[in-house]
Amino acid sequence: MRLTALSVKLTEFDLILTVKRTIYDAQSAGRLAQPCATRGPALQRAKPLVIYKCWAMVTVINRVDATARELRHPEKQNRPDSPIQKKPDWLRVRAPGSAGYMETQKIVREAKLHTVCEEAACPNMGECWSKNHATIMIMGDTCTRACAFCNVKTGLPQPLDSDEPRRVGETVALMKLAHVVITSVDRDDLADGGAEHFAEVIRQIRKQSPATTIEILTPDFLRKDGAAEIVIDAKPDVFNHNLETVPRNYLKIRPGARYYHSLRLLERVKERDPQQFTKSGIMVGLGETREEVMQVMDDMRSAGIDFITIGQYLQPTRKHAAIDRFVTPDEFKAYEAIARAKGFLMVSSSPLTRSSHHAGEDFERLRQARAAKAK
Question: What is the pTM of this model?
Answer without folding.
Answer: 0.79
